[in-house]
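We treat protein structure as text, and this decision shapes the records that our systems exchange. This encoding replaces a full spatial description with a residue-level series of whole-number codes. Below, we set out a record of this kind in full and without editing:
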Amino acid sequence: MDSPSSSTTGDMSKVATKSSSSSMIVESLRVCGISGSTRVDKEDLTQKLRMPQYLRFAMRESIRLNDAAAGKSHCSRSQDDDNAEAPLVPMVVFINPRSGGRCGPFLKERLQLIISEEQVIDMLDVKPHEFIRYGLGCLEMMANYGDHCALETRDRMRIMVAGGDGSVGWVLGCLSELHSLGRTPVPPVGIIPLGTGNDLSRSFGWGGSFPFSWKAATKRSLYKATIAPLCRLDSWRFSISMPEGTEIEPPHSLKHAVEFTLDEGLDIEGQLSNNVICYEGVFYNYFSIGTFSFYVS
């Protein structure tokens, strides 16, 4: 779905904001119908999702050492690795274990059992941009050195996010930087709804909450991600400025901006301070400021 061509502007409490629409280059997985009684074979699912061990270990080392080149030099390959083939749908899952009440840590263990420990990223330990810079960077570097398995794994990769809208938006925002850097294809993203706000998950058919029968649901969610069609996800870039010295706790989706340019037609209440602090970010479907929420359809 293409983004709207119009832009929206607004102001609130002498805070100038600017919102501009742009086509989202991160694709999302729209879930397709699968009966809750459908049996998903665990071994077959694991075979479709699990990357070869040498690739998993190389990516893990690159992330641990914050060096995309480190993985290749730290992980030796056997003759079996030379003949390794990329899985049909290599999957990486980002999980916020604090989401989902008591289910978060147990779901993490369940995902690690089905896929692999290295392919399940705890967002409290490894930030999405660290995985993209070092883990995905390691895979791309190995592909550039002629590793055909690494190349196919990179091209086929899909990502799931187990968390709420905040976690999903954080991952999507980091992935969007891949396109600007020419690091394509950008892996599509699916959702396991664990948060209290799961609007993105609802809008793409993944449901508003994770079911109580979460063990079986985990396999079904991963299976859905292997067959789900790709859909474009609209996004809007949001900018905000405020007087310098204002104390705020910005969410992950808002990053400090060096420069900030106001639209000429923007109506601003009161006098705008000469010294301002600026933040920019991307939102999907809606954003909120204090008690005000703005929905975009």
